[in-house]
Amino acid sequence: MTAKTDRIEKQRVLQAPPARVWQAISQAPRFGCWFGVDFDGGFVAGNRITGRITPTQVDADVARLQETALGPAL
Predict the structure, then answer these.
(1) 37 vs 54: CA distance, rounded Å
(2) What kind and span of H or E run contains 53?
(3) C-alpha–C-alpha distance, residues 18 and 45, integer Å
(4) Distance (Å, rounded) from C-alpha 11 to C-alpha 69?
(5) CA-closest candidate to residue 55, choices 41, 71, 44
(6) How far is CA 56 from the centre of its chain?
(7) Whose C-alpha in 7, 11, 15, 33 is 20 to 30 A from the C-alpha of 21?
(8) Cα three-residue angle 29-33-35, rounded to 5 degrees
(9) pLDDT value at position 71?
């Protein structure tokens, strides 16, 4: 078997209804809230957007670690 080295894959079982998970990953503001990104637009097929890394809004402990890694706010 050939190893795939062009990606990182991880599986996670979420204790949430599929519709809620889809909303969280398909809408830029909700995705950004979870993963700590402030996007300059929405997710649109074929369009590019940029984003700024920000602390997550869903886990205070992770947010504190992200703030430390990001350095002081401007």
Answers:
(1) 5
(2) strand 51-53
(3) 21
(4) 25
(5) 71
(6) 8
(7) 7
(8) 115
(9) 64
* Token output for 30: 């909700």
Listed residue (27, 30, 73) closest to 54, CA to CA? 73
- Which run of H or of E encompasses 63? helix 60-70
What amino acid occupies position 25? I
d(CA 35, CA 33): 6
Q: What is the pLDDT of residue 74?
A: 45
Task: For 11-70, write each residue's pLDDT tens digit.
Answer: 878 788 999 889 888 999 999 988 888 999 999 999 999 999 888 888 888 888 877 766
Look up the pTM and report it: 0.62
Helix (H) or strand (E) holding 19: helix 18-26
